[in-house]
Amino acid sequence: MKPKILLVDDEIPIITLLQYNVEKAGFQTDIAQTGPEALDKAINNTYALIILDIMLPGIEGTEVCRQLRERNIDTPILMLTAKGSESDKVTGLDIGADDYLTKPFSPREMIARVQAILRRVTEQVDTNQAICMGQLTIFPNQYEAKINGDTLDFTRKEFDLLLYLAENKGLVLSREQLLNAIWDYAFEGSTRIVDVHISHLREKIEANAKKPRFIQTIHGLGYKMVSVP
Fold first, then answer.
1. Residue 126 — very low, low, confident or very high, per pLDDT cuts 50/70/90?
2. What's the CA gap between 131 and 109, in Å, rounded?
3. CA torsion angle 69 72 78 80 (round to 10)
4. pTM confidence score
5. Which end of the chain has less Cβ packing within 10 Å, N or C?
6. What angle is formed at CA 145 by the lines to CA 131 and CA 62, rounded to 5 degrees?
7. How buried is residue 185: exposed, middle or buried, by Cβ count under 10 Å (0-12/13-18/19+)?
8. What gap in Å lies between CA 47 and CA 59, rounded to an integer?
């Protein structure tokens, strides 16, 4: 069975463009034209990916994304944003979207983004071994981490970032390296989304987020993760 993608936009020309090109690329499609409809379908159906416009009737796309992530629904989301709206892009990525696409977009770029997201999601971790870093234990295949035996709650991007830092323990990683490794593209010169996700991770794994020990800031260079006994 072909994987199904939920297309969410209230503009018929955009939906028509999306549907034609997504189905041409070998996917099935489902359509929603309002925020509430998108939320209902995403909660009650299984999709390989959601293409989600920000400006929607009823509930904005960012709120749809936020509510899905709060329900631990981790279906990959490609946000559609207005041209030049960097704040929308940062907000979307911050609340758990996997990527963004600026309108107007080319069908070829849209399909490339879809395929890149799905490729990242379906890539399997090569090892079944847990990664132990003192009080913190990370289970790659289970998408789970525990600290002092307590299970932590992460968005998928937070976990991807945590795992990448742990796999490169002791190495200083620049914001650009982290951005390219986790989001797979250059974010138009802005790396604030990396700092936001690092802050979220520290709130969850550090005893004192203001005095982090696991994820250290190396001023002028980036971040380094170390084991804490």
1. very low
2. 36
3. -30
4. 0.65
5. N
6. 130
7. exposed
8. 20
